[in-house]
What does this fold into?
Amino acid sequence: MKPTNTQNPEYYHKVVDCQYACPAHTPVPEYIRLIAAEKYTEAYMVNWESNVFPGILGRTCDRPCEPACRRVRVEEEPVAICRLKRVAADNKGDVKQYMPQGPFTPNGKKVCLIGGGPASLTVARDLAPLGYEIHLYDEQIAGGGMMRSQIPSFRLPEEVLNEEVNYILDMGIQTQFLTYVDSLKSILSKNYDAVFVGTGAPKGRDLPKLPGRKEGDKFIHIGIEWLAGVAFEHNKSIGKRVIVLGGGNTAMDCCRTSRRLGGKEVKVVVRSPFEDMKASPWEKEDALHEDIQIIDNHVPLSFEVLNGKLIGMKFQKVKALYDENGKRSLLPTGESDVLIEADEVLIAIGQENSFPWIERDLGLEFDQWNMPVVDKLTFQSTHPKVFFGGDAAFGPENVITAVAHGHQAAVSIHLFCEGKNLRERPSPYTNLVSQKMGIHEWSYDSGIAIDQRFVVPQAEKAITLKDRKKEVELGFDVQTAFKETQRCLNCDVQTVFTADRCIECDACMDVCPTSCITFTANAEEPELRQKLLVPAENHTQDLLVSEGLKTGRVMVKDEDVCLHCGLCAERCPTSAWDMQKFLYSVTKAYQMPEPLPQISK
Amino acid sequence: MSYLKPLFKHPRLPKNKLGYTLKEYEGSLSTLCAGCGHDSISAAIVQACYEMSVEPHKVAKISGIGCSSKTPTYFLGNSHGFNSVHGRMPSVATGASMANKDLLYFGVSGDGDSASIGMGQFVHVIRRNLNMVYIVMNNGCYGLTKGQDSATADQGSKSKAGSINPFQAIDLASMAIELGASFVAQSFSGDKQQLVPLIKAAMQHKGFAFLNVISPCVTFNNNPGSTKSYDYVREHIEATSTLDFVPEMPEIKASYESGQSTSLALHDGSLVQLNKLATDWDPENRISAVNALQQARAKQEILTGLLYVNSEWKDLHGVLNTYHMPLNRLDESDLCPGEENLLSINASYR
It folds into this structure.
C-alpha cells in the first residue's frame, strides 16, 4: 500500500467516528472534554457553532453519531453523546457574548427564506453576520418549523425551543410569521438576490383508499397535523381508545401525546416486525414505558364505522420474509383478520414534500416524483437564484441533516451573491496540535474508563402523563455527566506517526492494548489487512500505513479499535508517535473567528 | 504517565488451545524507559507462552537485580515469580526446581547480574544442566546506574558520555557452550521473528537452555559508536539460520532444499526446523558452534540464532536420579514408610 496521506483532512476526520457520522460534523470529543472540565458555556458554543441547536438536539436528535461511536466496537454501548450535549445546554452560562454581535454592516444583498425551520434558521445564522438583509416567511405563529409543530413539549420544552430560535432571530432577521407563501413567482418578483426554500415535508401520508376512511373522517387524523394541532392548542383531548398507525418517531410522538390528552388504551399498530420499526429504539422504549401497546405484523384493512361513529379497525396478520438481499416482503399468515376497537385513529405512516405554491413555469425543474431537481453539493435548484435545504431538498430526514444542509446552502448563497463559482468551495477549518506536555504527559485525559453507559433519569410517569408540557427526561446531573464524559475515547486525539524518527524497537506494537499496530513487510491492502497481529476485518475503517522504515518494513495501524490511550506515544523513545488533537470544522459562510474556544483554567 | 493498561482488548483477538488470548499472558505496564529492548523480549516471552498454550500457573519466573530483572513484572502476570538477590537467581531457581520439577522455569538476568556479580552462579548452574530457560537481556551497560560499561561491553565500544571501553568483553554464548550448556542461542530484541521460536524451542528443551539476547539500552547505550545500539546490531547481525519451532511431529514435506534445511529433534519429539544460512556449521557439534562464533567475531559480526543443542545430556534431576514425583508433592504417607515397614527394614540388618 502507498503511505497514507494524512495531509488530506478527511483521513483524520474519518477516524473521529462520531463526528464523521454526524451530518453537521460536530466536533463531539472536543465538547465532551469541555463538559468534563465544567466548561459548559464553551461546550455549548462548540455545539452551537456547528449544529446551531444544542439544547434542542440534545433532546431530540436522531443521534447518527451514537451507533458510530468507537466504544460500540470495544464494549457494548456508545457514549451518551446526545444527552451530554444537553448537559452543556442545561448548565451553560452567558453564551450570547460569544455569538456574532449585531448590528452587522449591511452588504446590500437581500435573501428570502421560505419556511422557519432548522434549515432556514441555519442559513439565517450563517448569512446574517455577513451583512445580508434576511426576510423569513413562515405560516406558523413563531419560528422553529417542525421542531415547534411536531415535536411534543414533553420531549422538547417550549422555552428551550424559543431560546435557541431567538438567538438567531435576534441577529436582525426580518420575520413575517403567520404568512403562508402561496407563490414563488411573487417572491422572486421582489428582487431578492437569493431565495432559500426550507419548507420541510409538510404533508402527512393518508390512507385514502382504505374502506371507511371517508365515513370515519371525523375520528381519523393525520399524525403530524394532529400533533401541530396539539402544539398550537387546537386539540385538547382524544378518545379513550386510540390506534396509531405507523412505526416511526412520529407514531411514537402521537401515541405518547395521546396518553397525555386522555387516551387510556393506546395501541400502535405497525405492518413491520417490531425490530424493523423506523422509530429510534429509545423512543420505542419510552412508549412501552408509558403503557402503550405496540402491535407489529398487522396490515390495516379497513376503518370500521357504525352509525357514523368509528368503532375500530380491521387488520390482516402478516409475517416478514427476507430474501437473500435482505429485501422484506410481508406475507399473510392465513389467520383470521383482527378487529381492534378504537374511538380515534392517528395515521403516522410517513410524510411527503408538497410544493403546490411553486409555479411550474419559473425554470425550476421538478423530477418524476414531483421533487425539485436540487444539486447535492450546492443545494442550488435549476433556477440559479433558488436554493433548497432540509426535508424540502431531498425528502424527510431529521433536524441535524437540515442544519447540515443549511450550512452548505448558506455557503452557496454567499458564493452566488459574490459572483463566484459555487463548486469551488472553501476548505474546512482544520488544525492538528500536539497534546504533549512532558515526557509522558498529555493535555487530554488518556485513561480509559471501563464504566458502562449511564442511564438518563426520567420524571415519574404519574406526573408526566398528566401534563403534556412536563418534560419526561430530566437530563444527567453534572456528577453523572462527568462520569459519562470519561467514557469518551478522545478519538480526535490522533496517533500521528513520523517514519523517519522510528528506530523499530517495537515498543508501540508490544504495548498497544488493542493490538492495532504491526510492523511488517508492505503488501497490497487485502493482503496487508490479513497480515496484521489481528487481521483488519472491519473494512469501513482505514489502515494508517507509514513510509518505508530502515529495515524495509512499514508500520501499519488498523484504526478500527484504537483506544487513543496514547500508550504507543508514551512508550516511543524517539517521539515517532505523537498524540495530536485534530480539529475539523465544516466550511461555513461565516466562520467564527475563534471557532472553538480553548480550555482555559 | 500511564500506570495502568486499559482493560479493553481487540474483540477478535485469537485464542490458543486453552482458550486464552495473548492478554492473559501479559503483565503490568512496564516502567522501564520507553523503547527499552527488554520490553520487546518480555513481549516475545508472552508471545511464545501464548503460542505454546502454556498454563500460566505452571510457570515460575525468577530474576536477580537490574533493569532486566524487573521485567518479570511485565510478563506472565498470572504466573509465579521470585525476585531474588543480585546475581543469585540460579541458586533460587535450582532450589525451586529441586522442590518442584513440574514447573517451567524462566530465569531472567542481565549482563551485570550474570557476567559480573553472578558469574559464579551462572557457571555452576550451567555445569549442573538445570532444566530452565535462562535469558540474559544483554545491553552492554549498567542501565539502572546510568550506563557504565558492563562486562559484556565490547572493547572499543563508545559510551554515551564518549569514553571508549578498554576491556575485552565476556562472550556469554561462547562461555556457555564451553561450560557445557545443552542449548545455546543468541538473538536480538528487535527481531521477534527469530526470538519467539527460539524461546519456544528453549522452553521445550530439557536441560539448561541459554539465550543471550542483545537488547539495546535506549537511554544509555543507543549512541553512535556503541556496539549494542539498534542501528549497530541491525547492521552487523548475521544469523546461523532462519528457524521455526514445530511443537508436534509434522508431515515430512519434500519442499526443503537438501543441505539447506535440517530438523533437530528435542527430547519430547518436537522439532526445530532450521533453514541454515551459515555454512560449515552444525548445531549438534560444539566445535563447529564455537568456530562459527569465533569466525563471526573476527568479522565483527553478531551471530544470532540457534548455536548449539544437545538433547543427549541428562538434566540435573536426571543426573541425580530424583523421584519421578516433584518433591513438594510428597506427603507423609510417601515419606514415612510406617512402623511395620521400618521394623522389617531394621530386621533385615540384624
User: Anything to note?
Assistant: Residues 249-259 of chain B have pLDDT under 50 and may be disordered. Chain B touches chain A at residues 1-2, 4-14, 22, 29-30, 33-37, 39-40, 42-43, 189-190, 192, 216, 218-219, 222, 230-231, 234 (CB under 8 Å). The CA atoms of residues 218 and 253 of chain B lie 43 Å apart.
